[in-house]
Amino acid sequence: MMQRHTPNWKTNLVAILALVAVIVVLDQVTKFWITSSLRLGQSVPVLADFFHLTLVRNTGMAFGLLSRSDIPFKAALVTFLSTAAMAAVTYYALRSAQHERLTRFGLIFILGGALGNIIDRVRLGYVVDFVDIFYRDTHWPAFNVADSCICIGVGLLLLDSFRKAPRAELAPQAEAAAAASRGDN
């Protein structure tokens, strides 16, 4: 009888770290390229009236939250909160089952993105953002590869939860139907 190989937590950790590293490298390379190519505030049109590359510094959190706030130790607070969230996601990623692929990939994208931005915060005191999406006078807050990966990760987690929800809701009903068909009371 052939046994199915189930990787241990060390194997999971190596795989997770390798994929996270790819995301972090991609994020940091694009930030290096943009900071080497543009001056702060400089904007280069990619798709006129929709998408520019614009170098900005984000001292706040996701989507510029707290960026205009001048609170003491803001950089340390934002870095601490980001690191705590990343630790929770890491724990969840290591505990997720091997067959939960969407969950695992979602968590890996979130981890890679969070780490990319934490590196900026620790190294620079702010996050380098450069993707500027807008329509007429309405601008989405500037973002970067790390932010995109976090959003992709959240999207994968949501998709996975939607896929699981109907099964979870139907499980008690299916069990009751099976019991009734067997004649169990």
Walk me through the topology:
Layout: H1 9-37, E1 43-47, E2 51-58, H2 74-95, H3 101-124, E3 127-135, E4 138-139, H4 145-182
Antiparallel strand pairs: 1-2, 2-3, 3-4
Helix pairs in contact: 1-3, 2-3, 3-4
Structure characteristics:
four-stranded antiparallel β-sheet; alpha+beta; 4 helices; 61% helix; 185 residues
Mean pLDDT, as a whole number? 82
Spans of at least 5 consecutive residues whose pLDDT stays below 50 are none
Number of helices: 4
Query: H/E series, N to C?
Result: HEEHHEEH
Q: Major sheet: order of its strands? A: 1-2-3-4
Our count of domains comes out at 1
> What global shape is seen?
globular
**Biggest sheet features:** 4 strands, antiparallel
* Estimated helix fraction: 55-70%
Beta-strand segment tally: 4
Secondary-structure class: alpha+beta
Task: Output the radius of gyration.
Answer: 21 Å
Beta-strand proportion: 5-15%
